[in-house]
Amino acid sequence: MGEWTLAPLDKFTGGWATPEFERLSRGFIAKFDDPRDRTLAAPALLARNGVVDGRLPTSARRRALQAALHLSTLDANPVWHPNADAWSSVTSDNGDLFIWPINPQSRSVALERGALMRSLSGGYRIERDDWRVRPPLELHMPHGHIRLDGDVLDAVYRSAVGQRGDPHGAAAIELSISWLAKAWRNTPSVSGEDRLIDLKTAFDGLTGESSGVRVARSVRQRFEALVPHGANGTSARHLLWRPWEPERVRTVPDAFGQPQQRSVTDLEEWFAHFAAARNAVVHRAARPRLRPPLRNRYRGLYFHTAERLLRECMHASLIRFGYTDLWRSHAQRELNALLQAAIARLDAAHAQP
Asked: SS3 of 124, please?
């Protein structure tokens, strides 16, 4: 991720600020438990330019790092279906970035919890054996290892931190991912209606629009912008959106839930129902149905359709930062890289006298 590397702690071979700082850091990380009261099996470590130097990143870089981690973590989930394997799935809680201050002189740490009401307790000596760092109550640890897409991590970080020359777009994608992460919090204190509001707000933040009609049009345009970059029936088959979605006159709800005739695609038809469901919660204190009355590809539960479409739209939006290939699946990108390398070797062989 730009100047940052992310790796499991036991695979990290970079440098540390001092040998003592490394000893204290490794000892502190060993204090963290998983929800089964076992030491974390494979904690991941962030290092700047290959070194854990002990310097605090700026707030802008912390936000960009968190955005990259949250989107890549949620991208690692399998495509949802009624029999999806929840044991292998993750939530945004699994992608949280933790930065803890260590005092090398006293060999201690201070633990801070809360947000509106902060609780700070200090003086925990790292060498002591009588205390542990407990995980959040809602943290679900998946079975097996979760693979994060390095290309997406790097692209989101560079874009969100403003290294790609679009400050407004950088703020939009970072903010949108933060709303996506809120919708994916594994806590019963966030209701289904809350999650629906979070996801609609994430679409608003990404597109810079608020009207359901204009947001849907912007999302459609971002997907259709993929066609000049090779999106077709084969290369886009992993996406929920389809390049050939027809536009035709259909009956869709307006912002107040009233039926109206409009010429829309399948995506826009779904978004009209999604926006109307959100408005029913916010403006009429209603509990909308969990899925739209559709029979097309968008007929699933609002939450799972919206969060997938949002993530895929974020990938499509990275074209605006110069990343023209990240809408493709990871397997497609790996295959393309292998083919390009093979072609380069053949060209080099033919160029030899």
From this structure: strand
Query: 234-292: per-residue pLDDT in tens?
Result: 999 999 999 999 999 999 999 888 999 999 999 999 999 999 999 999 999 999 999 99
246 SS3 class: coil
CA neighbor of 202 nearest in space, from 223, 184, 226, 189: 184
- Quote the DSSP letter at residue 194: H
**Contact assessment for residue 156 and residue 72, using Cβ atoms and an 8 Å cutoff:** yes
The one-character DSSP state at 18 is -
Helix (H) or strand (E) run with residue 109 in it: strand 108-113
- pLDDT reading at 203 higher than 80: yes
DSSP assignments along 327-349, one per residue: TS-HHHHHHHHHHHHHHHHHHHH
Name the residue among 206, 200, 184 with its Cα closest to residue 313: 206
pTM, two decimal places? 0.93
* Helix or strand holding residue 204 (H, E): helix 192-207
Q: How many residues does this entry show for the chain? A: 353
Q: What single-letter DSSP state applies at residue 39?
A: B
What is the residue whose two structure tokens read 């640890």?
Answer: 141
pLDDT in tens, 132-162: 988 888 888 888 788 899 999 999 999 999 9
Angle at 225 between CA 219 and CA 229, to 5 degrees: 140
- Answer whether 34's CB lies under 8 Å from 135's CB: yes
Q: Is 25 exposed, middle or buried (0-12, 13-18, 19+ CB in 10 A)?
A: buried
